[in-house]
Design goal:
Order of helices and strands: EEEEEEEEEEEEEEEEEEEE
Strand order of the largest sheet: 1-3-5-7-9-11-14-17-19
Distance between the termini: 55 Å
Length: 249
């Protein structure tokens, strides 16, 4: 049994080299596992392994939160069903030290959640995320990333997303998306929406012709006057779907 102690005399210390595993949460109001720092990022949390975490019916949160300046984190084997998200990436806007970096996430499954991977990030500086092996079924928006640089998403399977783009990217730099498959999904916009992002590479986007309907493969929004190379697309399979629509805003 763990007893909570609250005292203004306790001085937080760094958390390093830990393992968190084999936890199931049902109808939790908070995350099953939340990784954070103390002192608004000044007191670090680093080198943590999180694995085998499950969340069920968590209406307000999800299985795992990565937040407020943690670094060198490995997360694997995460499952959430009928929850707000599977995994969240967060900061709380209190300090420039709250940027999360060097995070590896593998083997993630979300079913009937509002979000799969949700970035609730408010400032640039988050980066070096490697996320692979994702399956999201019946989720409202499987991927929402914001203000994360040098990130790689690969081996993503989306099934049964309706009404909006399954993947939305905002203000990310040096981003790679590889081996993305979308089935039994539809929306009035593109399968991917990207805003104010630079040096984005999409390789291997498949939209199942028999079960998927979108306005185009990718909608890309950039400010007027940007001259830099923004987007590199290769190996897109969407049959009659227009691969790219470019907008200046």
């Amino acid at each position: 049994m763990v007893h909570a102690i609250r005292s203004s005399k306790i001085t937080p210390e760094p958390v390093r080299n830990g393992i968190i595993r084999d936890i199931v949460g049902i109808r939790n109001n908070r995350d099953v596992v939340a990784l954070t720092t103390a002192g608004d990022g000044a007191i670090p949390t680093t080198h943590i392994l999180v694995e085998n975490i499950k969340a069920y019916k968590s209406d307000l949160r999800g299985a795992v939160e990565v937040g407020d300046g943690v670094k060198d984190i490995v997360i694997r084997n995460v499952y959430a069903r009928e929850s707000y998200y599977t995994i969240a990436i967060q900061d709380h806007q209190r300090s420039a030290l709250e940027t999360n970096n060097r995070v590896e996430i593998t083997n993630v499954v979300g079913i009937a959640n509002k979000y799969g991977i949700l970035a609730q990030t408010h400032r640039p500086g988050h980066g070096h995320f490697n996320i692979s092996g994702m399956v999201f079924i019946g989720c409202h928006r499987p991927i929402l990333l914001k203000h994360i640089d040098f990130a790689s998403l690969s081996d993503l399977r989306v099934v049964g997303t309706r009404e909006r783009s399954p993947i939305k990217i905002e203000d990310c730099r040096d981003l790679s998306l590889q081996d993305v498959s979308i089935r039994h999904s539809s929306g009035k916009d593109g399968a991917m929406e990207m805003y104010w992002s630079k040096r984005v590479k999409v390789e291997g986007l498949t939209l199942d012709a028999g079960s998927t309907r979108f306005a185009c493969g990718i909608e890309f929004y950039k400010p007027v006057g940007w001259l830099e190379t923004y987007l590199n697309i290769s190996s897109m399979n969407g049959d009659s779907v227009e691969p790219l629509k470019l907008f200046e805003i």
